[in-house]
Automatic annotation (TrEMBL):
One GO molecular-function entry: hydrolase activity
Keyword match Transcription regulation: no
Membrane-related topology note: Multi-pass membrane protein
Lineage: superkingdom: Bacteria
Organism (species): Candidatus Eubacterium avistercoris
Protein name: Lysoplasmalogenase
Main location group: membrane
Amino acid sequence: MPISVIRTLFIFLVIACILIVHSFLAASDQKAYQKAFWRKGAAGLCFIAAGILAGPLCRDHRFASLTVTGLILGLAGDQLLALRFIYPHKSNCFFAAGGSAFAIGHILYFFALFHTGSIRLAVLLPAAAAGLAVSILYGRIKKTDGGSMKILLTGYMALLSVVNACAWGAAAGSSSLGLLVFAVGTLFFLVSDNILFAYCFSPRSTRGMYRAVHVTYYTAQLCIGAGMGLLL
């Protein structure tokens, strides 16, 4: 398939994802949670399809396969988190299961980045420390309290901080536009999950935070898919 066609279809999927996310948020505002569940799944299928479409453009096939699998796990995590609203009595179970799916996806992103061989430790270490420090500070400002899951949440944020740092370390060690866009995606992921935890476990949560979680999250996944495709 010509690259111009792939890029056109990719843009179409991005637009479709944006429109479906808007529809999903509208259903969530109306507390139509089952409808929201299916619309959220459709939005996830859009970023997976975009990733699969971009995959053949990636010069590193292992990087592409790991990234696409990470995107698929992101959809699984999405849907598990969405089930919390349909089955509120099992909220913590679905939250933990969804978080686990996302964590495995981030580990795959880590291995994909590590496989590039371009990560600069001089960027990785301070970036990881800064990401975790800012996450902890934001949690304290918002008075986020994960209760019995506090240790797991902290570990998850540490994982996201490391993956984000690896992405920026890889981008710094390469002239690849794809790695730079990928790094922007991991940064949006870190921001999104910080807001998510504050929304779920802080007394200072607002409905606007719920929207911000999803705007930054879908931006993150689309950037990760686009970054893979730009790794020419």
